[in-house]
Design a protein that fits this description.
By secondary structure, the protein is α+β, with helices and mostly antiparallel strands. Helix content is 45%, strand content 18%. Residues 36-176 form the Peptidase M16 N-terminal domain.
């Protein structure tokens, strides 16, 4: 009896947290254009300092791709006040951890420390912004690092090139058409001046957001931020051109051969609205319903029941200007990629022609409620959400209200958006084949 009572209490508590969760934050701008977001939570002695720059692969010259990802590495090389190789040592010496990542629209650097090392984090990120050393030694070192990363993650990794192949078929005009890691030829041939110019253009305070989240005193933190970031000069305003893709009106078929695989794969990719648009949230729910995990419709049908697929997977690519929904699978035994495509099409047709069940709809809602809580269950997760919502969705408070968008989406809306975007003639069909099939 006590066991069931405890379970009930925990269940009630979790729902109370689910619906009462509120992230309190403050945001303001420095004179140099740096946007600052502060979130004070003194429940644990931990703090995250992070800077997101509004620069990703889409901001690159088509003849000089891979620069944003290259800078993810290069800006750990050191500064005028931090010697080469010392960055990670400084972070670890005070019990912290740090990392960075790059995508189509942004680059993100962050550190998480015991809160008594907040000033160290602010100093590090201000140094990265104000005093980076873009030198030949660092450039040459990181060229080797990035080349090895491409070999291990793309060129020599099973199915590693699918992202690049899909992008170049989904987009013909927009700079999303090349992969984030870029061309190794472009990186190899780039000059030191090329890298310096890229840094001077994009890594400026008026193209960035600083987030400090965790065990802080807001007033003292503001004072430190002013001391470390206030003197950094504002950069030139960045001019961006909005590039509109022509709609896909006929199915685009692509084939890629990979010597690293033995099992073929089929990938179906649909171009969808930018991540801030309401319809992008609906597509997110469709993706989850159809192909996210072992409880999804496609996995249960093709893997568990019919046993024609070894795996079913989805790759939602959410980005600022356009997003895309990618669904695919690997056949098992004598089954073919055509068999998998037929089954996927049947399930998509079903969601386009009839409402999903009330039971499935409630299951979807529960899953998104859970995802919402988990995304903001850590200080580092909160920092990331605050930065992305401000920079890529133009609404920092989505950290508190985004779940309301999912709650408001109806079964009818799911059906209509599926009809609108998941059309056979509006997609890319990529057959990803073992290399020995090339002669067939």
């Amino acid at each position: 009896m006590k066991r069931y009572l405890l379970s009930a209490i925990l269940t009630f508590s979790s729902f109370g947290f689910l619906f009462a969760q509120q992230v309190v934050f403050e945001e303001y701008d420095l004179d140099n254009g740096l946007h600052v977001i502060l979130h004070q939570d003194n429940s644990a002695p931990v703090v995250t300092t992070s800077v997101m720059y509004h620069v990703g692969s889409k901001d690159e010259n088509p003849e000089k791709t891979g620069f944003a990802h290259f800078f993810e590495h290069l800006l750990f090389e050191g500064t005028k006040n931090i010697k080469r190789g010392e960055w990670d040592k400084i972070v670890s010496s005070v019990g912290g951890g740090n990392n960075a990542n790059t995508f189509l629209d942004r680059t993100y650097y962050y550190e998480t420390f015991p809160s008594n090392s907040l000033e160290t984090g602010l100093w590090l990120e201000s140094e990265r912004l104000m005093h980076p050393i873009i030198g030949q030694i660092g450039v040459d070192t990181q060229k080797e690092v990035v080349q090895e990363e491409r070999r291990s993650r793309v060129d020599n990794s099973p199915y590693g090139a699918f992202f690049e192949v899909l992008l170049k078929n989904l987009y013909t005009k927009h700079p999303y058409r090349w992969g984030v890691i870029g061309s190794m030829d472009h990186i190899a041939s780039a000059t030191l001046d090329d890298f310096k110019k890229f840094n001077e253009t994009f890594y400026v305070p008026n193209n960035a957001v600083l987030v400090v989240a965790g065990d802080i005193d807001s007033a003292k933190t503001k004072s430190m931020i002013q001391d470390y970031f206030g003197p950094i000069p504002r950069g030139a305003d960045i001019k961006r051109t909005t590039i509109i893709e022509d709609p896909i009106v006929n199915t685009k078929k692509a084939v890629h051969y990979d010597s690293n695989i033995q099992i073929p794969a089929i990938l179906l990719a649909y171009r969808t609205p930018g991540q801030a648009e309401r319809e992008a949230y609906v597509v997110d729910m469709i993706s989850t319903y159809l192909s996210d995990g072992e409880s999804s419709k496609l996995y249960k049908k093709l893997v568990d029941e019919k046993k024609i697929a070894l795996q079913i997977f989805s790759v939602p690519i959410n980005a600022e200007d356009y997003s895309c929904y990618v669904v695919g699978g690997l056949p098992v035994g004598e089954n073919s990629i055509q068999d998998i495509k037929n089954e996927i099409d049947a399930e998509i047709l079903k969601i386009q022609s009839e409402l999903i069940s009330e039971k499935d709809y409630q299951k979807l809602q529960n899953k998104f409620e859970n995802n919402f809580v988990n995304a903001n269950s850590s200080i580092s997760g909160i920092a990331n959400s605050l930065a992305e919502n401000y920079m890529l969705r133009d609404n920092t408070n989505l950290i508190n209200t985004e779940i309301e968008i999912y709650r408001s989406i109806t079964r009818e809306e799911i059906m209509e958006v599926a009809k609108k975007y998941l059309k056979v003639n509006q997609r890319v069909e990529l057959e990803y084949l073992p290399e020995q099939n090339e002669a067939n």
